[in-house]
Design goal:
Layout lengths: L5 H7 L5 E5 L6 E2 L2 E2 L3 H15 L3 E5 L16 H11 L3 E3 L6 H8 L6 E3 L14 H15 L4 E4 L21 E3 L1 H14 L6 E5 L4 H11 L5 E4 L4 H7 L14 H10 L4 E2 L3 E5 L8 E5 L8 E5 L1 H12 L3 E5 L12 H15 L3 E5 L1 H9 L9 E2 L3 H8 L5 H4 L4
Helix pairs in contact: 2-3, 8-9, 10-11
């Protein structure tokens, strides 16, 4: 089975053809301003190459969770503006997804033009469970590019979704993987095919339920599994420790207990915790041993002794995958754990290790903490997609490209 590349499509010729590109431009916004443009920047090469080759480029993307109806706060307007800056070329934004404005604008495109459709999740059919509903939206997207159109799947962050603009449309048009999807898939394949050892995985972030499947899948295959972030408290609770007011998913405690028994020599939990008296940037804070979290206080970061221990493990690794911040890095006071682990991974990279960061917030942390982006072999744009790949699940948006 093979997937066509963008180079194959360019060889076939795209001059004057309508090409629909599904990108992942789901960037974090604060008050309508883009906080981290990483995904936009990562989407530029494919769009640029198509535009340079004379395609009439139509970009489909989503932003946030608009619940299947237009929501002005989730308009792609700031994204279209930023993409135009990155491309150095005008980007029109349609006022709708596949409505009259999108159709009229797509008909008016000339060679090299770039048109962005409005947030594709404004259309409830995008995420419908009903194949026929999604099929109708996919057909409407095909109408925009016309009979000799093509589809380029470049939104790595959404390839684990069976959605109209990701999956169904690929079944209706000649298709290929964009450069971002091809690159991401290659990196993940390298993590699963016989990785150099020691192989260390660092997992953090907020919800343990999101990540239990990946822990189950990876624990038997890695040498070291470091667990920090909000999810470590469910594991600490599984060891019988009191976790105060820290994040805790009670219903997951039995599973965490079993994992700790089964993979005792692989799983490493923090030994000290930075606790706070409130979830706030200016909260009162102190470092306590993992078994000494005071009542009513919440753990917002791993402590310095944990960072030292994790650093020793990570700097010796030959392969590292990191998903999920070690603490609430958005607050300076609780960023040291994430910074420490990230720096250890940068050191490993410098020593020749193959290192991958996956996860939207983890990638944002790398940039927010001003860590060198080339300190990692690869920074993935897709959190959920990379986790599902590593769990061994088939990604519908990639499987559909095979023929
Ligand atoms: P990613 O997007 O990299 O997969 P997640 O979405 O799983 O990561 O989690 C990121 C979030 O987890 C961050 O916003 C961070 O503030 C939060 N977080 C990390 N540690 C804690 C903690 N101890 N308590 C509460 N939230 C935490
Ligand atoms: Mg996240």
């Amino acid at each position: 089975m093979s997937v066509k590349t963008l180079a194959d499509l360019l060889d076939d010729g795209v001059d004057g053809r309508g090409v629909l590109v599904r990108s992942d431009l789901n960037v974090p916004l604060d008050d309508g301003k883009i906080v981290d443009a990483g995904r936009i920047v990562a989407s530029v090469p494919t769009i640029q190459a198509l535009s340079d080759a004379g395609a009439k480029v139509i970009v489909a993307a989503h932003l946030g969770r608009p619940h299947g109806a237009p929501d002005p706060a989730l308009s792609l307007a700031p994204v279209a503006e930023r993409l135009a800056e990155e491309l150095g070329r005008n980007v029109q934004l349609a006022g709708d997804v596949v409505g009259q404005d999108a159709l009229a604008r797509s008909e008016g495109l000339t060679e090299g033009d770039v048109l962005m459709l409005e947030n594709v999740r404004f259309d409830p059919r995008e995420t419908s469970k009903d194949d026929a509903e999604r099929g109708k939206l996919a057909a409407a997207l095909v109408d925009l590019v016309g009979d000799d159109g093509a589809f380029v799947s470049d939104g790595f962050g959404v390839v684990h979704r069976r959605q109209a603009s990701v999956y169904d449309v690929a079944r209706l048009l000649p298709h290929c993987a964009g450069t971002l999807v091809a690159e991401e898939a290659e990196v993940l394949a390298r993590l699963t095919r016989n990785p150099d050892r020691p192989y260390a995985v660092v997992l953090g972030g907020s919800k343990v339920s999101d990540k239990l499947a990946v822990i189950e899948a990876l624990a038997p295959r890695v040498d070291t599994l470091v667990i920090g972030g909000g999810m470590c408290f469910t594991f600490l609770a599984a060891q019988g420790l009191a976790v105060g007011a820290s994040l805790l998913q009670d219903e997951m405690v039995p599973t965490c207990r079993r994992l700790l028994e089964q993979y005792a020599d692989v799983i490493h939990l923090p030994r000290d915790i930075v606790v706070a008296d409130a979830f706030a940037a200016d909260a009162e804070s102190r470092v306590v041993p993992a078994e000494g979290i005071p009542d009513g206080w919440l753990g917002l970061d791993v402590g310095p002794e944990s960072v030292d221990r994790f650093t020793a493990l990570l700097t010796e690794a030959r392969t590292v995958f990191w998903n999920g911040p070690m603490g609430v890095f958005e607050f300076d006071k609780f960023a040291a754990g994430t910074r420490g682990v990230a720096e250890a991974i940068v050191t490993a990279t410098g020593k020749g290790a193959f290192t991958v960061v996956g996860g939207g917030d983890s990638a944002a942390a790398v940039r927010a903490l001003s860590l060198p982006e080339d300190g990692f072999t690869h920074i993935s744009t897709g959190g959920g997609a990379s986790l599902e790949y590593l769990e061994g699940k088939e990604l519908p948006g990639i499987a559909v490209l095979e023929d």
